[in-house]
């Protein structure tokens, strides 16, 4: 074999190994990124659930306050 052919084969082999290393690194990085995104999404969902619960409780309290306000108005009418 000629020296040029051996050099070409060596370059192709090195390029292939570099490509494989790059692919592995990219996949590993993507996997970590995906895990981080899923973790953060879970935290956001928990916060959203707490917020929704607070909104529901606030709505119920406002409804009760309206009923109490109406009852106070009725009682004031009867006392005057």
Total strand count, please? 0
Helix coverage percent: over 70%
Class from helix and strand fractions = mainly alpha
Major sheet size, sense and barrel closure = none
The succession of helices and strands, N to C, reads H
Residues in β-strands, percent: under 5%
The mean pLDDT is 93
Distance between the termini: 116 Å
Work out the helix count. 1
**Assembly type:** single chain
Give the low-confidence spans: none
Rounded to the nearest angstrom, the radius of gyration is 34 Å
Shape: rod-shaped
Tell me what the structure shows.
This protein is mostly helical. 96% of the residues lie in helices and 0% in strands. It has 1 helix and no strands. The protein has one helix at residues 3-79. The longest helix has 77 residues, at 3-79.
Task: Briefly characterize the structure.
This protein has 80 residues and is an all-alpha fold. Helix content is 96%, strand content 0%.
Give the tags:
mainly alpha; 80 residues
Can you lay out the helices and strands and say which pair or pack?
Elements: H1 3-79
């Amino acid at each position: 074999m000629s020296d040029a052919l051996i050099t070409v084969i060596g370059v192709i082999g090195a390029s292939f190994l570099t490509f494989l290393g790059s692919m592995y690194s990219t996949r590993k990085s993507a996997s970590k990124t995906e895990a981080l995104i899923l973790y953060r999404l879970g935290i956001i969902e928990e916060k959203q659930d707490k917020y929704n619960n607070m909104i529901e409780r606030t709505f119920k309290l406002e409804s009760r306050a309206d009923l109490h306000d109406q009852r106070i108005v009725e009682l004031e009418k009867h006392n005057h």
